[in-house]
Amino acid sequence: MSSTNGHTSQPKGVSAEIAHERGYTYVKSLAQLNALEPRFTDPQQRTPALLIPQYRLGADGVHAWSERPEHPRIAQGGKTIKYEHPAGVPTCFDVLPRYQPSLADTTIPIWITEGAKKADALASAFGSAIVPINIGGVWNWRRRETSGASIPHPDFDGIAWAGRQVTLAYDNDVTRKREVQDAVKALARYLKGRGATVRVLVLPDDGEKVGVDDAIAAGMTTDTLRALLRNVEDLPRPTESEPRPRRWLAEDEIDQLRPPMWLIKSIIPAGEVTMVSGPGDTGKTFILLDMAKRVAQHYPVMYIAAEDASGIRVRKRAWEVHHHSPKNGNFLMWSGVLPLFDASEVDSFIDEVRALGLRMIVIDTLSQSISGADENSNGDMRIVLEHCQRIAHETGASVVFIHHTTKNGDTFRGASALKNDSYAHLEVSRDDDLIRLECGRVKNSAPFAPRYFKLVDVATDMADEEGAAITSCVIAPADRVVAGDTLTRNQMAMLGSLLLMTDAQGGAATTELQTASKLVGNSFYGALKRLRALGLVDKGEKRTDPLYITTAGRNRLAQESDNPEHHQDGVTINVAPPFEVNTRLQLLPLLP
């Protein structure tokens, strides 16, 4: 523990002994800050500040230093960032070294809280009677993988949980904030699944936010803290800051509801939520950017570039150059992530954009925007979709989110609620250089006929560091397809391989067919999906049954072989007219 110029590094409620072991350090200069923790980004480097070391269980020394600046930065939406964590450094379960040997002893209760100072206040009050663990935030018991999946933190595995008493000691807003209570209940379910007994600390709530460190600093004893423990099931329902408005409608009011309308005719419903799914590198972003720029010719649009803001800039400029359409100020970008699982972040977003008159909001991608949620959990995804619906209904904008498919490309990744709770679901696939956009489902309307596109290279008027023009792509309607769906080269190669394997061994496993056809990634899965949809390839009811070529597939392969006698004359049809924006929406009021 150190101090500078009269600034104490001993937080309230924390004993001198525990503060010394923790090693709180007050720094005044950037040089002092970077000497201890050089991994903060430029916006995070703010002095003077209190630096707080974290000790990951099972590791030697300091895992990372978090920062509590005296003058914190303000993020988008007006949220104050009280604590900074070094960019790119994984979170950890922070346990003071003296307590780490006790993690294997299930007779010693564990108290989990959301900050180092809170954990140290518990250590100061309880001594060796408990093991305090700092997880750093209400949802930080989950971690985002590079694949986009949210999983329980791996540090759980270093602790013995079965038969152990665990207390969740979050702040007193657990009784009034739904998102905090959701986090508590989800963590409690997980810990119970690992055999622990879980209770929740419910601190008195008079409207001012109070943590367990505040309570201990104010003189609350350990006996009083224990008396405030409750079963998770007994938590009071979150209070409302304002009385709820009447939510039921009289029959006359029902008749005044406006009918469903389109933002992009037959494709994107106005003021509702649409999911667009497809494998990687199939053109999803190019399609959505084309839609967004066409809508922006008439209305304001917000593009949330959670993955690649600079790439969107290049693609936007390529669209403008290709279509000879200069920018008009309607295409807005939210740089960074909008955490869709965090109700307070969603509230801030709505408040910030409500007055912009947005008619379309694109979220690219969903997996980057659901930190803390499990995309395979219907419960978590229903919360995410509820937040998307709130954004749509309170702003009047169509909310369209981009999502990935599973590895084999058969279906979208994650819980079924993503599709069931969306108003519409569009699917994008690619075979060779042909991009296919089709309707998976849409409420209150018949699905549109599939549309086909190709990517066209466009040299922008932007230059790289060597002065060369930066090139990107735009989608263009496929010039023609043959009625009856003439097979592509990839599809023909796959059918030919499967014919031989069906005759030789009754069919092929997916991996065997992939090896034989010499197709990989989207080329393989896109071709297989299309052949199965056409009835040319099938498999048995069991998951382990092999794929085989059908009689229709044999006939089709013969017809479209290299023998000219088997070629069919096709009919050229127009399959992908430009997306048509409904220009009458500005005459309609926003939804109440």
TrEMBL record:
Positions of the DUF3854 domain: 104-218
InterPro entries, alphabetized: DUF3854 (IPR024385), P-loop_NTPase (IPR027417), TOPRIM_DnaG/twinkle (IPR034154)
Domain of life: Bacteria
Pfam families the UniProt entry points to: AAA_25, DUF3854
Gene3D superfamilies, per the entry: P-loop containing nucleotide triphosphate hydrolases
Protein name per UniProt: DUF3854 domain-containing protein
Naturally occurring in which organism (per UniProt): uncultured Chloroflexia bacterium
